[in-house]
Design brief:
alpha+beta
Length: 415
């Protein structure tokens, strides 16, 4: 079944039969006979080390990437009010005398003297903001080709990819494991503190995670043992979160129950699930579901309603979504928890940690929202290239510790 291409005003038409069997012939003839009439760059338009523009198949980047901002968006943000975070380390009084509980009023006889004053033990802990610049280039030649019917990626599509990359890198920083070194410039720590580091504990020092022995510097956020949180490396205290290291053991339902019991005992609204979340990888959620099904106990589902600057949306509209839950606490799945930085892919065998977080007490401290700046003046840059920077100033904020928990050191699945 053959035909030919004909001009129909400004458009191109064909006389090929309108049947499915003629489609392959039409496509082959188009590329063999007609494609040379269209403007296109010579060869492919290469760009960057990890991706390239496909000059034949359309406006796509042909580099695979995993982009996620689940934890980044779920945690939410609060604007900075001051640098130091005031943290109450313990109650003003426990009613103790000589190490024994005697209760209130135990030292005052009727018509007698009032005992010495007590005060809340409040410490101020600095949590300095971090600069988060993300620079990238865009060739002006590629930008010129976009308006010439050339099959190169659209500029806006490229910016959208870079924006997704930016939020994904923030997400990766938040979810990186406690093992690893916090990057330094001179003596100043850079990069966001991970959730695992903020919710770490004295008990982790000396334990092994990802084949690395955890040090005191790694469990002290915002400056290591030189920062305000050095007390965390000196013994157990209320600066510690609840961290259970399975030491290479398999995940069991009893581990989830123990973590929930330890953490929920410290929530100020009892064991209510409001504004709490589980944070785990797809491997961990799948394993948890399988364990519970084997015990005839199934993961629940909850309807989660988003709010925007405190304004609630209408229930049932598309701003809400249904999530799996455990103990009526929604499970947020984020595969950056088991991201493999060696091959730059999400691992299908690693669990990563499992977090239980109280979102009233951990958030993004945002000083500057995301800014976008662009310069394509080659008289200034001396380069025929547009230079772009996305920038924000923020830090992972936390003001209470015993309300969070983490399961660590879970054995990997078999490949």
């Amino acid at each position: 079944m053959t035909g030919k291409f004909v001009k129909m005003g400004q458009k191109l038409g064909t006389t090929y039969p309108e049947v499915a069997s003629a489609t392959n012939t039409l496509i082959d003839d188009f590329y063999r006979m007609q494609y040379d009439q269209f403007k296109k760059s010579a060869g492919f338009a290469g760009y960057g080390d990890n991706g390239y523009f496909n000059a034949i198949m359309g406006r796509e980047i042909t580099a695979a990437m995993y982009a996620c901002d689940n934890a980044f968006t779920a945690i939410g943000a609060r604007p900075y009010t001051h640098e130091g975070m005031r943290i109450a380390l313990e109650l003003a009084s426990y009613g103790l005398s000589g190490g024994e509980f005697v209760g209130i009023g135990a030292t005052t006889a009727p018509d007698g003297d009032i005992p010495e004053s007590v005060k809340m033990d409040v410490g101020e802990y600095r949590q300095p903001y971090k600069e988060l610049p993300y620079a990238f280039d865009y060739g002006l030649g590629l930008k010129a080709l976009e308006s010439k019917e050339d099959d190169t990626i659209a500029y806006k599509d490229y910016i959208d990819k870079m924006t997704a990359n930016y939020s994904n890198e923030i997400d990766l920083a938040l979810l990186r494991p406690i093992s690893g070194t916090q990057p330094l410039v001179g003596a100043i720590e850079t990069s966001l503190n991970s959730i695992s580091r903020c919710t770490s504990a004295y008990s982790e020092i000396g334990k092994t995670v990802n084949g690395e022995t955890i040090t005191a510097n790694q469990v002290c956020p915002y400056g290591g043992t030189s920062g305000d949180f050095k007390a965390r490396s000196e013994g157990e205290s209320n600066l510690d979160s609840h961290v259970h290291n399975l030491n290479g053991g398999t995940l069991g339902i009893q581990d989830m129950r123990k973590l929930w019991r330890d953490v929920s005992a410290n929530w100020r609204n009892g064991a209510a699930p409001n504004n709490k979340m589980w944070l785990m990888s797809n491997i961990a959620q799948d394993k948890l579901g399988a364990i519970m099904a084997a015990n005839n106990y199934y993961l629940e589902s909850v309807y989660v309603q988003r709010d925007f600057n405190g304004v609630r949306t209408v229930p049932g509209r598309d701003a809400g979504f249904v999530l799996n839950s455990y103990q009526n606490i929604p499970i947020v799945q984020d595969n950056n928890l088991n991201f493999n930085f060696t091959n730059k892919k999400v691992s299908t065998v690693k669990y990563g940690p499992i977090h239980l977080l109280d979102l009233d007490h951990i958030w993004m401290r945002m000083l500057t929202p995301v800014e976008f700046q662009s310069v394509d003046n080659y008289a200034i840059t001396r380069t025929l290239r547009e230079r772009n920077v996305m920038l924000s100033r923020m830090e992972t904020g936390i003001d209470m510790f015993i309300v969070h928990g983490r399961l660590e050191g879970i054995a990997d699945e078999t490949a």
